[in-house]
Amino acid sequence: MSQQGYVAAPPYSQAQPGMGAYQGGFGSGPTQPLYGHYGGPPQAFSAPPAGKMHLIVLNRTFFLSAITVVMIFSYPAPPAVSAPYGQPPHSLYNSMASPGPPPTQQLTNQMSSMNLGSHVQGLQSPPPPVSSVVQQPFQTPPPLTMAPPQMPPGLQSPHMSPLMSPPQSPPASMPMASQSMAGTSMAGMGGPFPGPPPPGPGGFQQPGLGSAGQFGGYMAGPQQNMPGAFPGAPSAMAGPPQKKLDPDSIPSITHVIEDDQVKQGGQVFTTNIRGQVPPLVTTDFTVTDQGNASPRFIRCTTYSLPCTADLAKQCQVPLAAIIKPFASLPKNETPLYVVNHGDTGPVRCNRCKAYMCPYMQFIDGGRRYQCGFCNCVNEVPVFYFQHLDHMGRRVDFYERPELSLGSYEFVATLDYCKNNKPPNSPAYIFMIDVSYNNIKSGLVKLICDELKTLLEKLPREEGMETSAIKVGFVTYNKVLHFYNVKSALAQPQMMVVSDTAEMFVPLLDGFLVNYQDSRAVIYNLLDQIPDMFADTAESETVFAPVIQAGVEAFKAAECSGKLFIFHSSMPTAEAPGKLKNRDDKKLVNTDKEKTLFQPQKGVYEQLSKDCVASGCCVDLFLFPSQYTDIATMADVPSHTGGSVYKYSNFQIETDGEHFLRDLRKDVQKSIGFDAIMRVRTSTGFRATDFFGGMYMNNTTDVEMAAVDCDNGVTVEFKHDDTLSEETGALMQCALLYTTIGGQRRLRIHNLSLNCSSQLSELYKSCETDSLINFFAKSAYRAILNQPLKNVREILVNQTAHMLACYRKNCASPSAASQLILPDAMKVFPVYMNSLMKTAPLVGSTELSTDDRAHQRLSVMAMGVEDTQLLLYPRLIPLHNIDVNSEKPATPVRCSEERLTDSGIFLLENGQSMFLWLGQASSPDFIQSLFNVPSLAHLQGHMCALPELDNPLSRKVRSIISGLLEKRSNSMKLQIVRQKDKPEMLFRQFLVEDKGLHGGASYMDFLCYVHREIRQLLT
Amino acid sequence: MATFPEYIAQNEERDGVRFSWNVWPSSRLEATRMVVPVAALFTPLKERTDLPPIQYEPVLCSRATCRAVLNPLCQVDYRAKLWACNFCYQRNQFPPSYAGISEVNQPAELLPLFSTIEYVVQRGPQMPLVFLYVVDTCMEDEDLQALKESLQMSLSLLPPTALVGLITFGRMVQVHELGCEGISKSYVFRGTKDLNAKQLQEMLGLTKPSAAQGRGPQAAPQQSFNRFLQPVQKIDMNLTDLLGELQRDPWPVTQGKRPLRSLGVAMSIAVGLLECTFPNTGARIMTFIGGPATQGPGMVVGDELKTPIRSWHDIEKDNAKFMKKATKHYESLASRASSNGHIIDIYACALDQTGLLEMKCCTNYTGLRQEVQVNPQEIGTGGTCQWKVCGLDPSTTLALYFEVVNQHNAPIPQGGRGAIQFVTQYQHSSGQRRIRVTTTARNWADAQTQIQSIAASFDQEAAAILMARLAVYRAETEEGPDVLRWLDRQLIRLCQKFGDYHKDDPNSFRFSETFSLYPQFMFHLRRSPFLQVFNNSPDESSYYRHHFNRQDLTQALIMIQPVLYAYSFNGPPEPVLLDSSSILPDRILLMDTFFQILIYHGETVAQWRKAGYQDMPEYENFKHLLQAPVDDAQELLHTRFPMPRYIDTEHGGSQARFLLSKVNPSQTHNNMYTWGQESGAPILTDDVSLQVFMDHLKKLAVSSAA
């Protein structure tokens, strides 16, 4: 249907004439669930100060019918689905990823509407507050709400481009037609697909389908989309004038995830198409590299860049890529090829220095090539010459990874090495705080015992028998003890350095050794360490000198590497980097709150520089019993690509295993050292900002002392110039690093994106998970410099703005009261709301300053998977689990409503894991899991399930261990009983509900955003 | 009455004292006219096997400013149980323990036989001896190995209760904790940063009582030693292993660089460690170095090999940029060490210089703790009469210069005697504190009337050494030529004063027997390395001077004028003149310069040896001849400390230069034909010979113009 028409016609001009035309064209087209819209009557937010948001209904009777949420989904009928797949690639690149099919049809709308007016009581658990605030906001909003319909286009906010205004008028009139009008218009659109929605299993996507019909019909949609999850809900919503806004009817992350999994799970994603939107991060798929980097390495906020800076500014959708250069690949995907261009080093463009890649165009019979990034024409080096075939492609196209693949590695020559010397193999130094706390808790012994076995499993280069990584050991309290563990020694030697003011490394030979060679001496040492300090009374520690020692050690050994620091307390001993307690809860919610997140200046700043310069990555394992100023202590790790692990009030019984799992993962994970990353782009745009666990000396080079498989760097792009739809936008991420085997390599990731002068393309190609990653990082950085309140406001405003812009420019006309969300961003508000409820962004004195700082810093280095999971935890019902099924249990939405007294749920967000036991959970189940007759018999402080030999226990344990395996951090399993005190901890992860420490529920937030959008639109 | 030489020998034998004059001029003016000052060479701890230590404490004069010790020269009133101090004439009551005293029952200290007597102090705890080894690890492996073995061996020579400690250094300085089980511990310090005692104390964790002491009641209270200094008997195995595992400094030394050697900081830490653990207890820091300090405080040369270490030339031109700072550093260390009674020894072995010049103060100022109290009331001295010498061995000999303060117009009564009492408090190697008291007296004489008796009492050997020490002292502060001129002037004045001559007739000059050798000593002194720095590095000079300043008279004389023995078929070995004429083809010469033992084979002997006659049974006597000087040399080598350098050379051998530079160049290329002698070997030098020197001296002495 419209597909062709759309493709054939210059989209914008066609659509432009008026929404009507636009709509008409698409209306009959595939019903793509494009967006929901929210018929927001006078809902106001009492929001910011309390961090709470209330949906306020001003005049229930009046607005009853006016308050509707319309979810419009573009995902259409199955026939449409098949069509696009057949399309030639160039048209395909437009396709939206998730529901895949009718890329071009995306604009067809279906609406689901619901009556918000009455939902309010039902939805909001505390109606009284709502109504109490009702009056006030009411006064102002009514005119507002009423206004939009009458508003002439001229009133549009100025930043909207004139181009965009024409379509404005139709929508303006549409809403005027009132709710029912919206309904009918929708119906008109949806008309053609009354049938289709249910049929498509692909149509599973979401409520959208429901909207196929009229109001009533739309309701059916949700039902199908959420099969089984909430049997009761849909029916309640059936009637056109709903009394309640059914939570099920608002976009759900679990459904989006599930749909994408159903549609693309288990499939092969081939990267041969420019601007192709990959499956969601949560989806299980396989990648075949055919010229673009796998989404595991690079994900973008949108795969279709707006052609001009004006457009980009207009929509305010951030243009960013989240690069995880070392992402681990599943076993069934090919590891990166290593290319060797010999002594001259990799072939690069003379002008922009981009590396040879599939975007280089060979011309002149293969004698020259034109750089895809800067268009410079370069001579092909003699050794690299190859003839071209009749297609103008080099004959060796398929033999050379750098010509045919998106990701590959080059062997780096000496020019790429420090001092033009090949690097030495990297080293791991274990630095153990042996002050009183760590000795008393038994931690030191635990670490020493673990290291004996762990060091056998150091990561090694592919094909190598043993690890080339050297190991070294330091213990410290107020002074540092270095150990000589040279294999020739009969017993280890300890060298004490008390001069912490000017740290140095007392020995060279024998400090960093090969574990295999020195095993006996190291064993001897690890046996002795706990005893040597068994009687210590020293409780003061130093910290900066410890890192300094590591730096000096690496300098002396001329290698890079990683420090594993196991530290207990705030460093108060007299030494550089001494810290004092500056935790002040009084600062929360003031303009000075940012100081809590800012590191203390001075020593640590310089230390970060030194670390990066010498390729020293710092991983910090903290075992604090009180405030330790993580903002400062984690400063170095956060600039060196390191991680910070925190175990408050560490006790061996409950936290020991958790810590050891983290340690094992951390030691064994794949990693590169002494890395410099550079992102090159084709002309017209460039990388302008970088977020991540790195250090930047200038504006282009991302320096990382180490980069491991979990480090994600978020790169924001800005326009320099107009981008061409034809050539698209190219980026090349080049990472120079040292392998664990001590080889210098260049890892190249290439990605090509589309460019479009139509915003609808952009919205269609958006990736919500990436967007939220960007927002999380930029917000977390912003709180260093701005009051939290401002940051939160900016987030909400930008959310509203992005959505309003969509509404204005891309959506079909509808009532202003309708909340219309782009399909690709329909769950964006959930994430955004969850983000704003995270500890760093919520100003609450109940939260520990250290926890907030810690979370802030860990998010900065996260990739898309991690932020997605963090902001929307998995809540997995276990009570009705099929022990025989291989299929993983389906998560449900993170809301209290999904819990039942008889239920048992597992919740995890990549950082924490809870097993929640309902009050009325089945005794059989409890017996099977815990081997106790009832909940009441459960011992507190359990941190693992007993190993019981029954199918249920095995199944649950395998689910848990599977998750622990999969996540980058190990998580501590906390078992909470419904109504027990610790349940509070659990509840804060139910992100669709109102935040424990402030923050709106999803529904409230949605309403608030809607109101903002409407304000923007008027 | 015995002759003066006998008297001198007896005095030296009994008290270890030799005076330049054994009869003293009675006034200040006269004393200055004697040219050679009234001075003494005193060997405080002269070995006296016949001297049983007395197990009680000395009786002191009660006058607070005197505190002289009761001695045989005191007048004693046995009835009143009083004694009169012979220094201040104070009358003192004997203590109650002396109640039974009488003419027939005298305490040892009143017997003339015991003019030198040694008391054992019973008070206070017995402090163990402390030896702190400071070992350089920037050495060639072979050298280090040899050093390690010697150190291990040395442990067996220490008294078992002695405390030992070990500091090693290279680029860093390591203070080793001793007696650790299972793991060896050391504290490491940066080689570029000096620390004061307090910082060091904190860094070594010596401030608070160690955890070990709080642990159980068994912790002995007298365990005043610490983790770093432990009794040999307890940790000798441990320390032997530790020394065995010592490795060459592992820090890489790039081409064209010297190893970074933190000697200055190492010594500072050694001094600091003892300072905070054993103040005022005898302790010895034994430093073994393989090269100069190249970094940190006390560095004497940078690590660039292309810049050589300072030479005398640089010093003269003020081009030795590290010297002043380094010297200051070591001087401050020396004063810290000496104020706590700690000795610093330096054992250096290197091809290049090691910076001894800068460090000389460490060894010169410090050197078992001792206080010398000279009580020359009769003569009177200005300034200090107490000195601290941190280490004394039986041969350490001090030079003391006295000033006669008596005015010319207040003559001393005839027959008056001047008395000197040396009180030496020291810590014996058994750990006991002892006090040795030597009291001696000499007659006064009026220089105008009794000049002959004064002249006859001249001890020219002692005088030569005393003058030489003065000259060396001047040489360290003044320009070389000035010192020589001063020395020459003194000699000429002495000749003028005591010579027998007619004015302006050089040939009439005669010197009495007591002065006859003195000019010759001066001749050799002028040529000695103590005053001549040519061909010696600053370090060598410092080393030579250091030893010259502490060896006893005999050894010091050998240093000035080496002894030469000749071995030939013509008779038994005999001492021969230190003269080029002694170098004959059929002789083997053995020269002892104290620092070198040299065997020189004459031309013929060398040819015989080359031809292998010594291996032929029929020439066994030749074999014996060759062997004789070698055996004698070995004996010298074994008894001498520091061990001399042993040189075996022959006619025309390059090392023969050592001999040729010492002998009196009576035959040179300038005069060999005129002299026309057939024996002897001409020396290629422009130096004047003894003959020329003497002629010149006579001329100047008799000159009325002088």
Report on this model:
The complex is a heterodimer of chains A (1018) and B (706). Mean pLDDT of chain A is 78; it is low at 1-243. Among the domains of chain A are: 424-668, von Willebrand factor, type A domain (Rossmann fold), CATH 3.40.50; 873-990, Severin. Chain A has 1018 residues and is of the alpha/beta class. Chain A starts with a helix and ends with a helix. In chain A, 33% of the residues lie in helices and 16% in strands. In chain A, strand 9 and strand 10 (368-370) form a beta hairpin. In chain A, helix 31 crosses helix 32. Chain B is α+β, with helices and mostly antiparallel strands and 706 residues long. Helix content of chain B is 33%, strand content 20%. Chain B has 21 helices and 26 strands. In chain B, strands 8, 9, 10, 11, 12, 13 and 14 form a seven-stranded mixed β-sheet that branches. In chain B, strands 2, 7, 15, 16, 18 and 19 form a six-stranded mixed β-sheet that branches. Chain B is globular, with a radius of gyration of 28 Å. Chain B starts with a helix and ends with a helix. The interface between A and B is medium-sized, with 27 and 25 residues. Strand 16 (493-497) of chain A pairs parallel with strand 11 of chain B, so a sheet runs across the interface. Chain A: Residues 888-959 form the Gelsolin-like domain. Chain A: Belongs to the SEC23/SEC24 family. SEC24 subfamily. Chain A: Keywords: Cytoplasmic vesicle, Protein transport, Transport. Chain A: GO terms for molecular function: SNARE binding; zinc ion binding. Chain A: One of its GO terms (cellular component) is cytosol.
Write the SSE topology.
The complex is a heterodimer of chains A (1018) and B (706).
Chain A: H1 2-8, H2 11-15, H3 19-27, E1 35-39, H4 60-63, E2 68-72, H5 78-86, H6 89-92, H7 116-123, H8 127-139, H9 141-150, H10 165-176, H11 178-190, H12 215-225, H13 232-237, H14 253-264, E3 268-270, E4 286-288, E5 298-300, E6 304-306, H15 309-315, E7 320-323, E8 338-339, E9 361-363, E10 368-370, E11 377-379, H16 401-404, E12 407-411, E13 427-433, H17 436-440, H18 443-454, E14 470-476, E15 480-484, E16 493-497, E17 513-514, H19 515-532, H20 544-557, E18 561-567, H21 603-613, E19 616-622, H22 630-633, H23 635-639, E20 644-646, H24 652-668, E21 671-681, E22 685-691, E23 695-696, E24 701-708, E25 713-719, E26 729-738, E27 744-756, H25 759-764, H26 768-782, H27 788-809, H28 828-836, H29 849-860, H30 864-871, E28 874-877, E29 904-908, E30 912-917, H31 923-930, H32 951-966, E31 972-977, H33 983-987, H34 1002-1017
Parallel strand pairs in A: 3-4, 6-27, 8-12, 13-14, 13-18, 18-19, 19-20, 30-31
Antiparallel strand pairs in A: 1-2, 5-7, 7-25, 9-10, 10-11, 12-27, 14-15, 14-17, 15-16, 21-24, 21-26, 22-25, 23-24, 26-27, 28-29, 29-30
Chain B: H1 4-15, E1 17-19, E2 23-25, H2 28-33, E3 39-42, E4 75-77, E5 82-84, E6 91-93, E7 116-121, E8 130-136, H3 141-157, E9 163-169, E10 172-177, E11 184-190, H4 197-203, H5 211-215, E12 230-231, H6 232-245, H7 263-277, E13 283-289, H8 312-316, H9 323-339, E14 342-348, H10 356-365, E15 370-374, E16 386-389, E17 398-401, E18 417-427, E19 433-445, H11 451-456, H12 460-477, H13 480-498, E20 500-502, E21 505-510, H14 518-527, H15 538-548, H16 553-560, E22 563-568, E23 571-576, E24 588-592, E25 596-601, H17 603-611, H18 620-639, E26 645-650, H19 657-660, H20 672-675, H21 690-702
Parallel strand pairs in B: 2-19, 8-9, 8-13, 13-14, 25-26
Antiparallel strand pairs in B: 1-3, 3-17, 4-5, 5-6, 7-19, 9-10, 9-12, 10-11, 15-16, 15-18, 18-19, 20-21, 22-23, 22-24, 24-25
Helix pairs in contact in B: 3-6, 4-7, 7-9, 9-10, 10-15, 12-13, 12-14, 13-21
Pfam families (chain A): Gelsolin, Sec23_BS, Sec23_helical, Sec23_trunk, zf-Sec23_Sec24
Domain Gelsolin-like (chain A): 888-959
GO cellular component, one term (chain A): COPII vesicle coat
